[in-house]
Amino acid sequence: MDSIDFIVLRTLCAWRREHRHAALVTVVRTWGSSPRPVGSLMALRDDGAVVGSVSGGCIEDDLIQRYRGLQKKKAPEVLTYGVRADEAHRFGLPCGGTVELVVEFDPNQQLLSQLLESTSRGGLVRRELNLDNGRVNLAAVQAPGPLVYTASMMASIFGPSYRMLIIGAGQLSEYLATMAIFNGFRVTVCDPREEYNRLWSVEGAQVLTGMPDDMVDAFKPDSRTCVIALTHDPKLDDLALLSALHTDAFYVGAIGSRKNNAARRRRMLEYLDQPPELLHKLRGPVGIFIGSKTPAEIAVSIMAEVIAVKNGIALPAQYEIAHEKNRLEAAGV
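RESULT FIELD:
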């Protein structure tokens, strides 16, 4: 499953290919609490069809009424919702919440196709909209960045979907892969053990059967990739993790007890001759501490940590599994 942004852009591109009038709506600023973050997208067709979201639903309803039957316009419009308390209540915004939107009309279908094609090949693309005349410029960039919004322009950087490479095709991997797919990740699972890979049942996840370290090298993890080892088998996990640690992957981690993770670090330091600073990037036991016991709960724990790291959230120590288990043991719990 693709991320919601690309679902919106792909759907909008298809509408424009059919010569339907349509608008692309982008959240450009928020104040106070807001249901959707800056950069959120929504596409609106002239008959009221909608994909994506810029709020909890009430703003979408107003936009449908405002632009139903829209005809071609040139200059984008800027709308603000929730300035007054009664308006915030009317549009379902939290107390004090305000959201500012840019609405651009009939985006160029060829440029939308070019954007989707470039990102599908792994490129990062900066899309800049001139707010005075509606013209769009696309440019390749080397690094992701936040939405930029001024009085005269809006610029967003689009890139390929986030990727997750899972080492091991067991039950826990199936739960984690399912959650990752629903969160917009492209999931690949690697397991050379036939008794595991032939039983894999998660639709939408690619299965590789080579040795994990070779597959990591071939996968070429980048800053939008996470690599997670879930086999509990050092012969499969260790070299794959080591290969991943030498890439730009934003998250590299492994399942296992505190004892097993400590032993893994010792092996990498003493037998694989790796520098201590490299292991600072290695996460384990993976996940956040929620008292998880079942494979499904453990997958929730891991997915939550991956999303937090992806979004640049520094989790406090009490969310670390090792920290909390050590604390509970010291307290005799």
